[in-house]
Amino acid sequence: MPTLTVEGKGLFQVPAGKRLVNALVDECGSDQLHACGGVARCTTCRVEFVAGEPAAMTQAEKDVLAAKGITTPGVRLSCQIACNADMTVRVISRLEGSGRKDCGHRPVDEIQPPPAWV
Q1: Per-residue b/e over 27-53, b at no fewer than 16 CB within 10 Å?
Q2: How much is the pLDDT for 8?
Q3: Rounded to two decimals, what is the model's pTM?
Q4: 114: which DSSP letter?
Q5: What is the C-alpha to C-alpha distance for residues 7 and 4, in angstroms, rounded to an integer?
Q6: What is the CA radius of gyration of the chain?
Q7: Is 88 helix (H, G, I), strand (E, B) or coil?
Q8: Number of folded domains in the chain?
């Protein structure tokens, strides 16, 4: 099981292959936003990688980050990442302070849309 380290929260064991957005909520107890339901449309599920950033990216993630003008190194969409190795992240898009009524409806277990890796 990969170790997910969340700055300010601790270290957590997560099931291999689990979507990062769901691991942040389920295993880490984070109030990570995911307003679009984890389909790479809204960018509310952004995290910043401190270590262990995956090299692969889905085309959907690449496209939405470019469309929103997000170019900060290490900032990625947690809905488009599977926990397949140890990683350390900073949660930068949380319900607390967002003014939203909730985090969004739960993303399904599989990465959506079906990933085309780039």
Answers
A1: bbebbbbbbbbbbbbbbbbbbbbeebb
A2: 95
A3: 0.97
A4: P
A5: 10
A6: 13
A7: strand
A8: 1
At 32-74, the pLDDT tens digits run: 999 999 999 999 999 999 999 999 999 999 999 999 999 999 9
Helix then strand then coil, in percent of the chain rounded to 5, is 15, 25, 60
Confidence (pLDDT) at 32: 97
Average pLDDT, the chain: 97
Q: What is the pLDDT of residue 100?
A: 96
Length of the chain in terms of residues written: 118
* Residue 82 to residue 85: CA distance in whole angstroms: 9
In a domain, 50, yes or no: yes
Amino acid 27: pLDDT: 98
Is residue 117 included in any domain, yes or no?
no
Give the Cα separation of 34 and 23 in Å (integer). Answer: 12
What are the beta bridge partners of residue 74? none
- Token pair of 5, please? 């380290």
Q: Is residue 106, in this structure, part of any structural domain at all?
A: no
